[in-house]
Automatic annotation (TrEMBL):
This is SoxXA-binding protein SoxK. Residues 1-20 form the signal peptide. Pfam families: SMBP. It comes from Methylocystis echinoides. Keywords: Signal. One of its GO terms (molecular function) is metal ion binding.
Amino acid sequence: MILAVGLTLGLGALGGPALAEDNYLQQAIAETTAAIEAGKQGEASSFVEHADDAIDRARSAVWGTPVDPIRKGIKYLRKAVKLAKGTSLDKRIAKATEQAELALQQFQSVK
């Protein structure tokens, strides 16, 4: 009986971190989507804020689930932030938005 309870608790504990990484990935997807929407509206500062948040969430997700699509998505987002930071040029914001869309594709491919 005690062994069964211990195994049940142990398996439950193992399932916890996997759910946490999945939650981080979902948050990264949501933040990336918000960044894309801000980029399409030409709001560079909001774009950068959401993209930075998405990078943070994706880094947390990759810590527990080290898969290449998440890493590639982070690289795309970092490039997007560099393009959009400190600018109001529509062309640069559009290019940054394209990079964020590529990142979103990478994050969604993990599922």
